[in-house]
Amino acid sequence: ADEKFDVIVIGAGMSGNAAAYVAAEKGLKVLQLERGEYPGSKNVQGAILYADMLEKIVPDFREDAPLERHLVEQRFWMMSETSHTGMHYRSDTFNEDKPNRYTIIRSQFDRWFSGKVREKGAIVLTETTATELVTGRDGAVIGVRTDRSGGPIYADVVVLAEGVNGLLGSRAGLRERPKAAQVALAVKEMHFMPRETIEARFNLDGDAGVVIEAAGTISKGMAGMGFVYTNKESLSVGIGCLVSDFAETGETPYGLLDAFRRHPSLRPLLADAEIKEYAAHLIPEGGYRAVPQLFGDGWVVVGDAGQFNNAIHREGSNLAMTTGRLAAEAIFQVKTRRQPFTAENLALYKRMVDDSFVMKDLKKYKDMPRLLHTQSSNLFLTYPQLVSKAMEDFVRVDGTPKLEKEKATVRNFVRTRSWTGLFGDAVRLARAWR
Ligand code: FAD
Question: Are 292 and 366 in contact (CB under 8 A)?
């Protein structure tokens, strides 16, 4: 128990594994604690892996990582009760030697990543929960207590990679717990079917894959999205909405998921599947304005615990891996310079995050979470219904002159939102998108 580590990493998710791997690779003495039975056991199944950010950590990951399908097509669906208006992007350029995005199954992937962490020499303890941060007389974090017997374990720096709930850091007063309007509750299930069925239904060759991102009436006017990811022999199907919206409306996540999978656009794609593995998890969605203090005397926070999530592009694990890697690089630099691990010196980590795509992307969309929250019924209910009606009128051939149809469509928009309303919505959206 008297052994002292350079770094203790709390959590073996994407951010924790990235931090532990890079720190151990650089020769630091690393202890990683994971409360789950094995890394990934607590993590929600099925997700998209962004290769570029993993390549910066494990360059040859394609050799043995458990990858499902590489993505060649992205479908965006704006949904009404009976329809979807879609935009699809499919390109053969994504059938490249080193594909850019893959679907993965997190429980398998996290286990693989953790194996790599061990190979680099880190000590990984599973079924071990860090229960408390230990501070020195000056208030600096100097170690952790766990639910195992024995005293505290000490380290120069503790990397908080504990995920969105981040109880350890919030209990220690390092940051607040995220507010209900800053986190989405997502539910997800796995639909198993033979791979040939998936390939036929989604028009796929071999290990190519498709993503569907769906928004509209499926979230019943709440800020939220549904998704379908194709794995080799299963589909990950899920939906998530802001926790505050669930509380206000009384809707339930499983009620939404049930309605989503029964939607006429989705039902044929899911037919005859064997549904398994329900899971529910929070996603940080507060964006730039929700990012807490990221460093202090003896500690840094990475990944979901730092609210690093780009809700617009649905990127989370790549921000987690990048912040984990940058934290380890910053710690290594401080160590190499033989400086103490004070807040002043660990501010280097924050500067590195600020310089990276992580903070730049969050900053770009800094007003988006508020817009989605305050305008949710317009954006997720009214407009999808208006667009669906306009598209139906455009496509249906019934002898009505086209000019009359167009005028009716404009009238429908104006009657529902008014000219000033339409103008205001366009300006608000453009501003938040900037
Ligand atoms: P986590 O992966 O949550 O890991 C935290 C780990 O810390 C857990 O293993 C937990 O058991 C452990 N832990 C917590 N507290 C303690 C403690 N006190 N002691 C010991 N261990 C502890 N991102 C994408 O990039 N692409 C996607 O397609 C995508 N889809 C998603 C779908 C859903 C339904 C959800 C919920 C999220 C999705 N995300 C996606 C987001 C992504 O999952 C997260 O951004 C990412 O997992 C964050 O990694 P992390 O390491 O910070 O946290």
Answer: no
How many C-beta atoms surround the C-beta of residue 169 within 10 A?
A: 25
- Is residue 226 within 8 A of residue 214, CB to CB? The reply is yes
List of domains in the chain = 4-66+105-178+289-365 (3.50.50.60), 181-284 (3.30.9.90), 369-433 (no CATH)
The per-residue pLDDT for range 57-98, each reduced to its tens digit, is: 999 999 999 999 999 999 999 999 999 999 999 999 999 999
Q: Determine whether 121 is exposed, middle or buried from the number of CB atoms within 10 Å of its CB (0-12, 13-18, 19+).
A: middle
Q: Is 322 in the pocket of ligand 1 (CB under 6 A)?
A: no
0.90 surpassed by pTM: yes
CA of 303 to the centre of ligand 1 (A): 8
Tokens of 21: 């791997």
Closest residue by CA, ligand 1 atom 29 = 47
Which of 15, 22, 212 to probe ligand 1 with, by most ligand atoms within 8 A of CB? 15
Evaluate: CB of 320 within 6 angstroms of ligand 1: yes
CA 20, CA 64: separation in Å to the nearest integer? Answer: 19
ipTM: 0.98
pLDDT in tens, 108-149: 999 999 999 999 999 999 999 999 999 999 999 999 999 998
